[in-house]
Amino acid sequence: MQDKPYNNLAYGFLAPALIVMAICGAIPMAIVAFYSVHDTFGGNVFFWVGPMWFKQVLTSPDFFLALLRSLGFSLLVLAIEIPLGIYIALRLPAKGALSSIYIVLMAIPLLTPSMVVGYVWKVLVLPQAGLLGAGAAWLGFDYDMNSTLVTWLTLAMMDTWHWTSLVVLLCFAGLRAIPHDYYQAAQIDGASGWAVFRYVQLPKLRLVLLIAGLLRFIDSFMLYTEAYVVTRGGPGVSTTFLSHELIQTATIQFDLGEGGAMSVIYFLIVLCVSWVFFSLIVPRSKPGTVERARA
């Protein structure tokens, strides 16, 4: 079978976007990397210090505690949003006007800016005027934002409200892409609803769930605006995540070298996790697969 001629025209259309992404991403990252191996006393005069800032960051207990808090929060919201998103997607009507209405409603939280989400939830947890605060008081509970447990639950609920819709929409699209033949075969075999979900729907949603998990991990791991507006990193440092520690170091303390080293480490963590997800999403083809497919 003769191969079709390869057309490079697509790269020409992608070139402007790639150039913009390179300018907006590569240049700032190069400047941050430059800061991470230099020190300055002002006046745009920089001195080479090598890996000194990296050693300082990697031996700092505050850095690792903030990292553990960020990882813990990411795992918490993933454990909530992925199962909840699957359940809601399964319960949504597949067709009709009602399905379109639900999809539009699901998209509303995703379109809400992070700053607005933070201030909305800050109002919700006010002791007397807030819905959550007043509701807890009516039930006889004290919604105390000075409690570490309450603040973590609040941030988890806020993130769940804001981003579960993304998981729902991805799973809904994945479910609609499953051929109807699978359901007909399961019906002929007399499979139960749980069996259909376990052996038909869940395997077909594997790639969708990996993509949803990757997107949600990156977003939650880099959480800053909403958490800062609601808790300011408190009580104490219980909600001071790695993003807060980075902002505190680089912009408030104005330690550009240490902040640059922390940014590079932050970037490498996100890059490694993204690579793991990418390896699961796009498995390597076995040798000879392409040749056999072309034959």
Topology:
Blueprint: H1 9-36, E1 38-40, E2 46-48, H2 52-58, H3 61-91, H4 97-111, H5 114-124, H6 131-138, H7 148-176, H8 180-188, H9 193-204, H10 206-221, H11 225-231, H12 242-252, H13 256-281, H14 289-294
Antiparallel strand pairs: 1-2
Helix pairs in contact: 1-13, 2-13, 3-7, 3-10, 3-12, 4-7, 5-11, 7-10, 10-13, 12-13
Short description:
The protein is mainly α and 295 residues long. It has helices at 9-36, 52-58, 61-91, 97-111, 114-124, 131-138, 148-176, 180-188, 193-204, 206-221, 225-231, 242-252, 256-281, 289-294; strands spanning 38-40, 46-48. 73% of the residues lie in helices and 2% in strands.
What value does the Rg take, in angstroms?
Answer: 24 Å
Helix content: over 70%
One letter per element, helices H and strands E, the order comes to HEEHHHHHHHHHHHHH
Mean pLDDT: 87
CATH superfamily: MetI-like
The CATH class is identified as Mainly Alpha
Strand order of the largest sheet: 1-2
For the record, the count of structural domains works out to 1
Overall shape = globular
Classification by helices and strands: mainly alpha
Largest sheet: 2 strands, antiparallel
CATH topology: MetI-like fold
Please give the number of β-strands.
2
The separation of the N and C termini measures 7 Å
Hey, roughly how much beta strand do the residues contain?
under 5%
How many helices? The count is: 14
CATH architecture: Orthogonal Bundle
Uncertain spans, ≥5 residues at pLDDT below 50? 285-295
